Amino acid sequence: MTTAAHRMFEADEASRALGMELVEAGDGMATVRMKITAAMVNGHEIAHGGYLFLLADTTFACACNSHGPVTVAAGADITFVTSARLGDELTAVAHERTRYGRNGIYDVTVYRDTPGHREVVAEFRGRSRTISPPKDPS
């Protein structure tokens, strides 16, 4: 099923250029995957936190836009639980916690996929705001 989130992701050059893959989106949830490449590793030989934030933020955007109206971030926080490394396959899963009026709260967990289990790498909380449709100039 193609949702507004799928259409938004197809137009998201930044996320797709980093190799992100939208696995699923709909009804206030989304799952996105990304592999850590050499270009994403910092001077400590771990994934730069900005890339982890970007993965979580993209997943958040897909979840909050799955309802249809254009929705943007009003704010977000991330907690890095452990480091990601070169070659890690990461999966981010977003779930809507609540929507009220034009606002929403979404939680995203970023996992490292390993044989047999998932290890939490980061926890992200995003606050969304639905943008009002443009006013008709007539």
TrEMBL record:
* Keywords, alphabetical: Hydrolase
Thioesterase domain: residues covered: 46-114
An example Pfam family from this entry, by short name, is: 4HBT
Care to name a GO molecular-function term for this sequence?
acyl-CoA hydrolase activity
This protein's source sits in the domain of life called Bacteria
Q: Which family does it belong to?
A: Belongs to the thioesterase PaaI family.
Q: Which InterPro entries match?
A: Acyl-CoA_thioesterase_PaaI, HotDog_dom_sf, PaaD, PAAI_dom, Thioestr_dom
Name of the protein in its database record:
Hydroxyphenylacetyl-CoA thioesterase PaaI
* Source species: Amycolatopsis suaedae
Q: Which SUPFAM superfamilies match?
A: Thioesterase/thiol ester dehydrase-isomerase (SSF54637)
